[in-house]
Amino acid sequence: MKKIIFMLKDIIEKALNKQIELEASSSQFYLSMASWTETKGLSGSSSFLYQHSDEERMHMLKLVKFINERGGNALIPALIQPPTTFKSLTHVFESLLEHELNVTESINNIVGLCLEEKDFTTHNFMQWYVAEQLEEEALARTILDRLNMIGNDKGGLYLFDRDLSKEIPQDEQV
Ligand code: OFO
Question: Which numeric CATH code is attached to 12-75+92-172?
Answer without folding.
Answer: 1.20.1260.10
